[in-house]
UniProtKB/TrEMBL annotation:
One annotated GO biological process: 'de novo' UMP biosynthetic process
Residues in FAD-binding FR-type domain copies: 3-102
PROSITE patterns: FAD_FR
Function recorded in the entry: Responsible for channeling the electrons from the oxidation of dihydroorotate from the FMN redox center in the PyrD type B subunit to the ultimate electron acceptor NAD(+).
Residues where [2Fe-2S] cluster binds: 223, 228, 231, 250
A GO term, aspect molecular function: 2 iron, 2 sulfur cluster binding
UniProt keyword annotations, A-Z: 2Fe-2S, Electron transport, FAD, Flavoprotein, Iron, Iron-sulfur, Metal-binding, Pyrimidine biosynthesis, Transport
Protein name: Dihydroorotate dehydrogenase B (NAD(+)), electron transfer subunit
């Protein structure tokens, strides 16, 4: 899988809610190689901002050569992107990182767990697992701050959906594990993306239930290709690149088996 840097046209962009934006990009060279769990680097059009912004893939349309990115405004770079519209262009590098190991689900029921801005990368995974193994084998557990439940309806054709909200305005009050326990949900494998406290709790849940837990780490990145070591996490194994106990999230990840890393 060869990453490429291309000039991509924005096909559309809309605000979903509260600083959450959805952007479709025309990037056939990248879309043709992409899999769920990977990300791309978007480059600012402002020369003073040298580092790209990593954004996970929400949807992949290989037939039309397009990618959907759903992101939250987190700083000057993403605020710049949010002001662009159809016909504007951006430099894009991708596909980057590894994807979720979908073959690990065979014969199992899966939890797809997303928290906050970790929800978007789970949508393409839901679509592909549902197409491969059947919708009845996929349960999406989505954690939100409040009733602004972006993307929830888009999961429903591909998975049964359970919701947790921090303020209790929809679904289970609390976090994704509260929803799993309150609603009596069960699975034999976990795929997840979200904030570190959620992933730590899911790692412990996987250990308790003795089921594999594949997690996608969210981390600030610099180069996005594994050269700068700015986004390492501790690992059980010695890394062949740096010769210490770490993994480069952008290069070795962002998807890891939870047992392989320290959170």
């Amino acid at each position: 899988m060869a990453k490429v840097k291309v000039r991509a046209e924005i096909l559309s962009q809309e605000c979903l809610c509260n600083d959450i934006y959805s952007m479709w990009l025309k990037v056939p060279e990248i879309a043709s190689q992409s899999v769920p769990g990977q990300f791309v680097d978007l480059y600012s059009r402002d020369g003073s901002r040298l580092l790209p912004r990593p954004i996970s893939l929400c949807e992949i349309n290989q037939e039309e050569g397009s990618l959907r990115l759903v992101y939250r405004i987190a700083g000057a770079g993403t605020r710049e992107f949010s002001g662009l519209g159809a016909g504007d262009c951006l430099e894009v590098l991708g596909p980057l990182g590894n994807g979720f190991p979908m073959e690990e689900m065979e014969g199992k029921h899966a939890f797809l767990i997303g928290g906050g801005i970790g929800i978007p990368p789970m949508l393409q995974l839901a679509k592909e697992l549902s197409a491969r193994y059947g919708r009845d084998k996929v349960t999406a557990v989505l954690g939100y701050r409040d009733s602004q439940m972006f993307l929830k309806k888009e999961f429903e054709p591909w998975a049964s959906v359970a919701v947790a909200t921090e303020d209790g305005s929809a679904g289970t009050k609390g976090n994704v594990l509260d929803a799993i326990r309150e609603q009596g949900l069960k699975a034999e494998i976990v795929y997840a993306c979200g904030p570190a406290p959620m992933l730590r709790a899911l790692k412990a849940y996987g250990e308790e239930k003795k089921i594999p837990c594949w997690i996608s780490l969210e981390e600030r990145m610099a180069c996005g290709i594994g050269a700068c070591l700015a986004c390492v996490c501790q690992s059980r194994e010695v890394d062949g690149h740096s010769h210490v106990h770490n993994k480069r999230i952008c290069k070795d990840g962002p998807v890891f088996l939870a047992d392989e890393i320290e959170l």
